[in-house]
Specification:
- The protein is mostly beta strands and about 130 residues long.
- Strands 2, 4, 5, 6, 9, 10 and 11 form a seven-stranded mixed β-sheet that branches. It has a four-stranded antiparallel β-sheet with strand order 1-3-8-7, with no helix packed on it.
Length: about 130
Amino acid sequence: QVRLVEFGGRTVKPGDSLRLTCAVSGRTFSPYAMAWFRQVPGEDREFVAFISWSGATTNYADSVKGRFTISKDNAKNSLYLQMNNLKPEDTAVYYCAAPNVPRMAPGQSPGGYDDWGQGTQVTVSA
C-alpha cells in the first residue's frame, strides 16, 4: 500500500525560504505524477504545484508562480517543494498527492488524486 509522508513544515518569517519533502513508499515512485496542495481551516484544499511523471512538465498556481519550485528525485522516492520569498498568505497545511494510475496527469483538482499524505504545517509570521 502506498504511503506519502510530508515533512519540513515550520514557522518562518516573511521573505524566508523553506523546502518541503514528501517521501513515498509502497510502490515504484517514478511512473507517477505528483502535486502539492494546501489548505487553511474553513477553506477548500487549494492546488499549489504539479509535476508530471517524467518531470518534464510542471505547473503552478498563480499565487506561487516564480516563488515555488516543485521537483522529484526518483532515486530517493521523494517529491520536493522549494518555497522562496514566503508570505503570510502562504500559511497553510501542505499536502502531497498522487494518482493511483501511472503516467496519469490529474490536473489541478484535488478530486483527481487518490493518495494523500497527512500534511505538514507551514506558518509565515513576523
